[in-house]
Amino acid sequence: MKNTLFKYLSSVLFLFITIVFTANAQTEVTFKLNLQPQLEDSTFIPGRDRVYLKGNIFPLSNTKNTYLKDVAPIDSVYETTVNFSARNDGKALKYNFFIYTPDKLKKEHRTRSLKLQGKKMELSPIHFDSFAW
């Protein structure tokens, strides 16, 4: 009886510890996109057009788009925060931003990449389809 109870309590404790450490190890990434050039030349019109993010790792690989929002309209920076499962820690996330307008869908020409690190990450604002060489 004692042996069975000990095994049961050990299993429960192991499960609890696993859940706690797994939940803490997820990667939270805040993506930011500066749309000032598109706003200035009217190739992006707030309220009509939308900007979203797609990638190779769930939830960005999901069929549902992850939309960015302008949380502080004064700076023209659109952002979204995405949580990735701990099982993806160490993997390379490949992603692109998309701008959807009634006329067409614009996709960045090059794929971006980021290593998921199991911690909270806030990326600096970048410009759509602009890459540092």
TrEMBL record:
Signal peptide: 1-25
Sorted UniProt keywords: Signal
Protein name (record): Uncharacterized protein
The species this protein was found in: Fodinibius halophilus
Lineage: Bacteria, Pseudomonadati, Balneolota, Balneolia, Balneolales
